[in-house]
Amino acid sequence: MRVVTTEPSSLTSALQSRIAKEIAAVGGWLPFDRFMELALYAPGLGYYANETAKFGAMPESGSDFVTAPEISPIFGQLVASQLREALQKTNTHEIWEFGAGTGALALQILDELAAQGALPERYTIVDLSGTLRARQKLALAKYEHLVRWVDALPEAMEGVIVGNEVLDAMPVQLLQRTAGQWHERGVVLGAGGDEAVFAWEDRSTELRPPVDIGGPHDFLTEIHRQGEAFIHTLGERLVRGAAFFIDYGFGESEYYHEQRHMGTLVCHYQHQVDNDPLVLVGLKDITAHVNFTGTAVAAQDAGFDVLGYTNQAHFLINCGLAPKLDAVGIKARSMASKLVMEHEMGELFKVVALSKGVEPWMPLGFVQGDRTHRL
Q1: One MF term from GO for this chain (predicted)?
Q2: For the chain, what is the HEC assignment?
Q3: What is the model's pTM?
Q4: What is the CATH number of the domain that holds 174?
């Protein structure tokens, strides 16, 4: 058991107390996925539920990380082209965005569709964060006639779904192989039951990664039950439409490669990356890469067709990146290039396309470089 201490703050103290009470209530050991859920989403306290800054290009803004829409508006413009095609192919009239962040992506999409004379009848944002919802409403004020916010899905829905960096924020379970035996990693209180200190504790489990992992060495990894359950719920509710998820991650064979022995769980705080989610609880993001094979399998089990899977670079190029770059100045072109450079976001980020209730087609963003066969 390794003990770690946290820096003092009123927010972390309140959240630590909330988590500590739950640890005590369940017998002293909390599975990591529940810890992550509380750290990110506990009402008023969790990272995505409190008022701290999150999104921004520089740490001076008080932010912790930057996403593609904040890097360049060209990102949302190109996503809009894919969504427009999908609305036409599915004969639906509503866009659903999950986890809309600052509202930047929604604004870019709607501005581009407005310029094309192709605005949807409605744009629905599903976001649990009240503070982010307030920012989104300000950013999207000129589209208040067609944007709505919901915090739960209807029993039946139609339309085109988009989620940028949503799946990586779904709580994950941690599995640790030590001396050949698998354990689930959870969180306990530190020495003496100190509520200001959290510590790791591993417990024997029947849970396993979805594939066998070679080698005798110790191995830490994640499984994604909540993320896959989310995809399954979408499949149950979506009657007709399509979905596009953009996130960092890998296919299963790469995700669970024997050399990836430290897993993918990371935290973001003031534009620095670390691997310790037990400190600064509520003040930093906790995230894990996406197992896109697991996402695709869950989608198929839920009745989706998998239309395509590729990296972000191919997706944006296919959606018309070149003419967009030709139309802007060198500074804007330099920023947009980060979206497709291999050492930036171009290769690490992937895009998966799903459809349900319609005849499958090859979407615009996947006509070149589709990797579905590698899932």
Answers
A1: protein-arginine omega-N symmetric methyltransferase activity
A2: CCEEECCCCHHHHHHHHHHHHHHHHCCCCEEHHHHHHHHHHCCCCCCCCCCCCCECCCHHHCCCECCHHHHCHHHHHHHHHHHHHHHHHHCCCEEEEECCCCCHHHHHHHHHHHHCCCCCCEEEEECCCHHHHHHHHHHCHHHCCCEEEECCCCCCEEEEEEEECCHHHCCCEEEEEECCEEEEEEEEECHHHCCCEEEEEEEECCCCCCCCCCCCCCEEEEECHHHHHHHHHHHHHEEEEEEEEEEEEECHHHHCCCCCCCCCCEEEECCEEECCCCCCCCCCEEECCEEHHHHHHHHHHCCCEEEEEEEHHHHHHHCCHHHHHHCCCHHHHHHHHCCCCHHHHHCCEEEEEEEECCCCCCCHHHCCCCCHHHC
A3: 0.94
A4: 3.40.50.12710
Question: How much is the pLDDT for 56?
Answer: 61
282 lies in some domain: yes
**Total structural domains within the chain:** 1
Range of the domain at 187: 9-374
In a domain, 2, yes or no: no
8 — pLDDT class (breaks 50, 70, 90) = very low
